[in-house]
Amino acid sequence: MCNFERKSVLQAHDTFSPKEDLAELDTFIRSQKVPGELTISYPGNGGRTSVVFKGRPVVHRGEVETLPEKS
Q1: Domain that residue 52 falls in
Q2: Which of 9, 30, 31, 48 would disulfide-bridge 18, Cβ 3.0–4.6 Å?
Q3: What are the tens digits of pLDDT across the range 2-34?
C-alpha cells in the first residue's frame, strides 16, 4: 500500500473594477491587513484590463479515507 499525505491549497482572488482609483484601493487593502499580492494588468494600448488581489495561499492538511480491504 502506498503512503501519502493529502493537502488542499486555497487562495482567494478578489477582483476589482479596472476603473477603481488605485490610491483608494491601496488604502482599502492595507486596512484589511491581509497578506497577498495586488496584480494590475495593462494591455498594449495602455488601459487597465484587470485589478486582482491574490491572498496568501493557505494549506490545509487532511486525512485520507481508506477503503476497507476486500476479503
Answers
A1: 10-61
A2: 48
A3: 777 788 888 999 999 999 999 999 999 999 898
